[in-house]
# Entry
Amino acid sequence: MKLIELTNPIYLDNNGIEWAINADNKIPVIKQYIDKIINVTQEAIRDFKSPIVYNFWLRLRDGKTISNFLDTLKKYYLQKYGFLIKYVQVKESDGDKFDHHHVLLFVDRRFAHPSSLSHFLTKQTGTDKLLFCQDIPKGNNKYEYMTLKNENEIKDAVHRVILPFLTEVKSRG
# Structure
């Protein structure tokens, strides 16, 4: 599949909804990534009564994969809270050995308090664990997580939290 670059800061999705995106001629974004993020966001809104989205990054230990991490995260939320998570992740490579992953995690706030993710990530960090280091969301910064209650909050989250990480990754990759 050929990736399509977008340079217009306004994106019209398949449902005719306008989205402000962080794109221009110098830093284009990929249409397929935008569509995936919007679709996962809309699925979370449809499936969760009180959806919130976390934005964090992590670096895995040698020999560990993002699939290991996401499988462990999915099992944690399913066993502890009884629901499946929704997420989007992308690998950022700076061209050195310190590749890391940006993750957008959508959960239902009714069951998963923001501190639960901090607890999970902390337990995964350390010698012989999945993670080498991460940016742990503490739940006290609106850029770490955002509620998705109405159309304005959704568009604000997509514009300020969700899409910027892809623009950053695209510009470095």
Notes: The chain has four helices and nine strands. The first helix runs from residue 31 to 47.
